[in-house]
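Fig. S4 source data, part A: sequence.
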Amino acid sequence: MMSRRQELTDLFSEIDGIEATASAHGVEFTIAHSGECKRVRWDVSDAELSKILYDYSKDAKAATGSSDGGALLTVHIEETLRTTTTSGALEKTRNGFAVEPSTT
């Protein structure tokens, strides 16, 4: 059985400019844009990701009539990754996602 983190990376496989890799502790994103390369880490367990996907499925159903929470989650993460100006850690916030800059 495929992990939730691997499922998420598979959703990103068709998105140009963002590479996602599942790890033991979460998902790592590499964003290539205008010759720059940023790395963003999301420390998320499969259980946490399942809960987030469930919540997004409810939102997707209400907004579009489709319960494809993975597609909606991918759009939200992609928007955050494309607009971030720094490498760092992806954090789930009350209103979506944000990237906390690396301190190193």
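Fig. S4 source data, part B ends here. The helical segments are 4-12, 46-64, 69-83.
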